[in-house]
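=== RUN LOG ===
request id: a7f3
mode: sequence -> structure
chains: 1
length: 484
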Amino acid sequence: MINRRSLIINVACFVVAGLGLLWSGCTGAPARDYARLKYPRLRDVQVPQVERVTLANGMRLFLLEDHELPLVNISVRIRTGSVHEPAEKVGLASITGQVMRTGGTATRTGDEIDEELESIAASVETGIGLNSGSASMSVLKQDLDTGLAILADVLRNPAFRQDKIELAKMQHRSAISRRNDDVGEIAGREFDKLIYGPASVYARQTEYATIDNISRDDLIAFHKKYFGPNNAMLAVWGDFDTRQMIEKIEKAFEGWQKVDLDLPETPKVRYEFGTTVNVVRKDDVNQSNVYLGHIGGLMSDPDYFALIVMNKILGGGFTGRLFKNVRSREGLAYSVFGAYSANYDYPGEFYVGCQTKSESTVHAIRAMIGEVEKIRQDEVTDEELALAKDSFLNSFVFNFDTKGEVVNRLMTYEYFDYPADFLQRIKQNVEKVTKADVLRVAKKHLQPDKLQILAVGRPDDFDEPLSVLGPVNKIDITILPPQK
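=== RESULT ===
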């Protein structure tokens, strides 16, 4: 029989060994440094083959069979977006996308659609975001015909019932009334305006007046302009036969009228580098939300891969320099973050930011600027480079953990005119990034002497006046009242 002391020792040995450490008290061998352990190269991810088909009506399909569960899913992407709505009617795209579903169709109300979908445990949703419209369907295989018919009806024949339009507008007005309640939301929103401009399609916001300007005719016209089979992509994955699915989709969308594809171009971003210091007074808080940065870039930039690694080193969670130095070593922030972000079709933002007590606001700003300056001055260490690359590459497999991710990503790449193997190219190029590459892109893309600086908080309690950083611009976030 094993006595308690022996059992405890054996369990302790097992736990320590499970952590990858060799304890000489258990094995009788000298301890080894964990840092000297060697690991094999990660195996290449096997990407499933996606079937791509263009129908006679111009609709593009991306199909991937997955017979693990008796489910079928469809994701739709329409080339549209709020970037194309008039400035005096900001909110039009969002309301159109919402009421397409809630307002029902010519043959059934939104409430009737809800009941029918609930009876078969299915869902159909629609929406319109910044640079695309979307719809989705999830249904049991046995109810595919019903779900597909509802999806096609919603996309083709939205009724835009007035009561649902008024409900959507009410929800937008409610959101406007609450938009200054959250300090973090204020900081992110106002920083976007500093980067893109307050009137830019990438930063503008709804107002009571813009919501009031939207009519049912506007929704009908917006839908008519953009929603047609030749302006639509469908990603389909689940338990189906590909040939049969193509036939079912052709039948469901038969007769859908094409739209004019002479669509507006994606609006350009015009940015001039320069330093500004900005404050939003929020007297009901005792901490500051701080952002500082400038314009970012595009994912098509050849430097994008090295910037991914630089991001990991500068702002990569617990192991990033911002966390280790600004938060942990100097104790200046509750949270700290940063990234050089890039988008598919318009530039992202470079930003670093933090939440800090009011009395350390300027100190924290200087500390963050210091970290941006340092990453431009010297090469990162071998350990930092290896950790950043391993962090990215070890999580790469999670881009393929569901069939839906695979097929939707392929559709997204085609939507934005990127190569189908763009994700694999990211992996291959990140593996090649060197310390010299990180220093080169940091010097090229980061400009710590030309930053937009924003602090949201109580200026009377700051450790120093913000004016020590430059002339201060006071940002007014007063919500404009509704029109009479």
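=== NOTES ===
The radius of gyration is 27 Å.
Residues 4-26 have pLDDT under 50 and may be disordered.
=== END ===
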